[in-house]
Write a structure and sequence with these properties.
With about 375 residues, the protein is mainly β. The chain has two helices and 26 strands. It is about 5% helix and about 45% strand. A hairpin with an 8-residue loop joins strand 18 and strand 19. The termini are far apart.
Length: about 375
């Protein structure tokens, strides 16, 4: 078959382009930015419900309810974890899933102080459930906690000495599994990067000991049980480890199902070539047909140069959220959006749009 014929039969590729739009802000005025991924969904009345988090004095989250178009948000209501076994450990709600039975399941990033002289933390991932739309929560236990032996108290990235965090959670299309797509910061550099863990959606209420027996990880193209005290294999491995002051790694994944593309889309921050504080090199994105086979996804490509942390897409249509969107959606970084993002399918070989240069606040820097 000729090259022209092969090109004619090649499947289309996905494209994304940013377009300036009026500013939308998820966080309340007393916060300069959101300090984690910010889950957003539409409640049964069609209103937008957002969870935004702040790090001072310790990590905590607020619930805000606004219009369906993500405007006119009401006051920030601090959420409460009613039976928190560690109230002095900061917690950031990073993902939610509305159960059809009316409950709201949530997952939080918790930062435990690391041993040693440096002001570092070891994050872990916990579960919770709410019966009042996310204002109060019941603790369901720790989902993922890294082995203590894989802590590096001398890490020089400025924040973390190990652990798992900066994640998203969503079900597959068949609603059989819940996928946790996380950033692994463990001291073993072979297991640093973006990793996937899954467990049956039917086990969402299971106690921690029982759920630990249901966790699975992906390795060598197959799913297998995640062994106790084992860091999950990584999908996108860090090019330069987190023990360095200038790591080179993707982190903070945010995935949604894109109805227009018929594929899952993931946004990521990338840090590299900078001093401690996770210098933002740019936002990257990639796509794939299935959460079950991450190795079949397209390679990440750059969407922005610079910008801020915690990039995510939030859908604008009825029932859409931070885990489901259509052809046109909002592009947020750290809880602020001055951009629409438009997704399309184009012929194989079509060059992607030139990445936009953005400031930390999300403003365009190239003067165009």
């Amino acid at each position: 078959m000729s090259e022209a014929a092969q090109a004619a039969y090649a499947p289309p590729v996905c494209a994304a382009a940013l377009h300036e739009a009026p500013l939308l802000v998820l966080h309340p005025p007393h916060m300069q930015r959101c300090d984690s991924n910010s889950p957003v969904f539409r409640n049964p009345e069609g209103r937008a419900v957002a969870f935004v988090s702040h790090h001072k004095p310790i990590g905590h989250s607020y619930r805000r309810i606004g219009a369906a178009d993500l405007g006119a948000f009401g006051p920030a209501e601090q959420v409460r974890l009613l039976d928190d076994p560690a109230p002095l450990v900061g917690k950031w709600i990073e993902a939610v899933w509305p159960d059809p039975d009316g409950r709201l399941f949530g997952w939080f990033h918790a930062e435990v102080p690391a041993p040693g002289p440096l002001p570092l933390f070891v994050p872990e991932i916990g579960r919770a459930v709410s019966e009042d739309g996310g204002l109060t929560w019941r603790h369901l236990g720790v989902l993922l906690r890294a082995p203590a032996a894989l802590t590096d108290p001398g890490a020089r990235n400025g924040f973390l000495a190990g652990g798992y965090g900066d994640f998203c959670v969503l079900p597959d299309r068949a609603r059989r599994w819940l996928y946790v797509v996380l950033t692994s910061y463990v001291a073993d550099e072979r297991r640093q990067g973006i990793a996937l863990v899954r467990y049956p959606l039917a086990a969402r209420d299971a106690p921690p000991e029982a759920l630990a027996q249901r966790l699975e990880c992906r390795e060598h193209g197959a799913w297998r049980p995640l062994r106790p005290e084992e860091p999950p294999p990584v999908w996108l491995r860090a090019a330069r480890g987190w023990r360095h002051p200038d790591p080179d790694a993707f982190w903070g994944p945010a995935i949604h199902w894109n109805r227009h593309l018929g594929r899952f889309v993931m946004l990521l921050s990338r840090t590299r070539a900078g001093a401690p504080a996770f210098r933002q090199d740019g936002v990257h994105w990639c796509w794939g047909d299935s959460l079950e086979e991450p190795e079949a996804w397209a390679a990440p490509q750059r969407l922005t140069r610079g910008g801020s942390w915690y990039p995510q897409v939030v859908g604008l249509g009825p029932g859409e959220s931070d885990t489901e969107a259509g052809a046109s959606a909002r592009f947020f970084m750290a809880g602020r959006s001055g951009w629409r993002i438009r997704f399309s399918l184009c012929a194989a070989g079509t060059p992607p749009p030139e990445p936009l240069a953005l400031s930390w606040e999300g403003r365009r820097l190239d003067g165009a």
